[in-house]
Amino acid sequence: MLEVTAIDRALITVLLANLLAFGLFWFDKTQARAHGSRVPERLLLTFSLAGGLGAWMGQHILRHKTRKEPFRTLLGVVIVVHLIGTAALFYVLLR
Predict the structure, then answer these.
(1) Rounded distance, CA 70 to CA 85, Å?
(2) Cys-Cys with 22: which of 54, 70, 71, 95 at CB 3.0–4.6 Å?
(3) How far apart are the C-alpha atoms of 60 and 76, rounded to whole Å?
(4) DSSP annotation of 65
């Protein structure tokens, strides 16, 4: 039987967080086009903290909130914090 390590769990969690962040950007873009109920920017930024790459890809692939300030700048800061936190997590797990 295969053993699931802490690194495996962390990788799966990061992957799911990135997919969720991308999905939120996709949902918000869809709602914006349909003039429906939108995802609050605070929630997008919060999920971007866990899934920074997915959020970045959602912003650029979907062309969503690319010109809106201060959201664009805040998202950049949140993604940097995400990358530092992810690197620190894997540094601790790999020690």
Answers:
(1) 22
(2) 54
(3) 12
(4) S
The alpha-helical segments, DSSP class H, found in the chain are: 6-34, 41-50, 52-61, 71-94
Q: 3-state SS of the chain: helix, strand, coil percent to 5?
A: 75, 0, 25
**And the tokens for 25?**
């950007």
Angle at 50 between CA 48 and CA 52, to 5 degrees: 45
Q: Which two tokens stand for residue 24?
A: 């939120």
Please provide the size of the chain in residues.
95
The answer to whether the CB of 6 falls within 8 A of the CB of 35 is no
What does pTM read for this prediction? 0.92
The pLDDT tens digits of the residues spanning 8-29 come to 999 999 999 999 999 999 999 9
